[in-house]
Amino acid sequence: MKKEELKTLVAPANKKTDSPYLYPFSTPSDQSKPYNIFLIGSNPATPICSNDRPSDEYVDLLLSEEQYDRVFKQFRLNKGRTGVSRTRLGTNSMINLLEAATGENILRTNVINYPTAKANELKAIPSIEIDRSKQLFMKVLLEHQPSVLIACGSTPFQHLVEILFNEGLLDSFPSMDVNIHELEKSNDPLIRFTYQNEKEGAIFACRHLMYFGEKGDSYKEFMQTVTQYIHSKDEVVGQG
């Protein structure tokens, strides 16, 4: 996605300086390798507005994860919060461990990329903003077409399934009456689907990453399941 297009897509719809930019992802500076795994949260927890940072600078941060993390840390500290949240720590740790185990690049994103300090504040956001946010998520998803989608929590899992169903990528709407702990224990993808070009995608789900910590000890079985699935796909490709 080109910088100017991204700049337009993340800009607040109402143009107010105290309205937040959308946060579709942040990527490492080296983007030479495709993103084959999406790590998907519900929505970002730290709003950044144009009166905090000009749009050109904000987009530059999205395209340089290293710079984003430095600025994000200072931004939180300036607001009297910890430099790194438990969720951010868990997310970074899972990405590092899973990339090392699979050899794949992982993109961190949110199924609703409109940021609010608390998840329940999304209820007060105009539906046009939520819809625009979901459309941006789908644009990023279809641009990269990752083989594995990991929904980190019951809420992002529900939103992800809903969006894919509405976009015609799922033939049926599965039951959502399942505990996230049970979903995490599955030895196989919870849902398989195909993109329009017939590439296969698989959905896994785990608990919120605020519980992951630095080592992710309680997530080890889940990490092994995802890693084994990735390696099995690599073997099929190698035999093709």
Question: Can you put this structure into words, describing what you see?
Answer:
With 240 residues, this protein is of the alpha/beta class. It has a single domain (3-229), classed as Uracil-DNA Glycosylase, subunit E. The chain is 43% helix and 12% strand. It is built from 8 helices and 5 strands, in the order αβαααβαβααββα. The chain has helices at residues 3-10, 55-62, 65-78, 86-102, 127-144, 154-166, 180-184, 220-239; strands at residues 35-41, 105-110, 148-152, 191-194, 200-206. Strands 2-1-3-5-4 form a 5-stranded mixed β-sheet, with helices on both faces. Helix 1 (3-10) packs across helix 2 (55-62) and helix 4 (86-102) runs parallel beside helix 8. The protein is globular. The mean pLDDT is 90.
Brief descriptors of the model:
single chain; 240 residues; alpha/beta; Uracil-DNA Glycosylase, subunit E; five-stranded mixed β-sheet; 8 helices; 43% helix; globular
Short description:
With 240 residues, the protein is an alpha/beta fold. The chain has eight helices and five strands.
Weakly predicted, low-confidence segments: none
- Name given to the CATH architecture: 3-Layer(aba) Sandwich
At the third CATH level, what is the topology name?
Uracil-DNA Glycosylase, subunit E
Give the biggest beta sheet: 5 strands, mixed
Which CATH C-level class is it? Alpha Beta
Strand content is 5-15%
How widely separated are the two ends? 31 Å
Biggest β-sheet: strands ordered side by side in the sheet = 2-1-3-5-4
In total, the number of strands is 5
User: How many helical elements?
Assistant: 8
Order of SSEs: HEHHHEHEHHEEH
Overall pLDDT: 90
The secondary structure category is alpha/beta
Radius of gyration: 17 Å
Tertiary shape:
globular
Tally of individual domains: 1
Proportion in helices: 40-55%
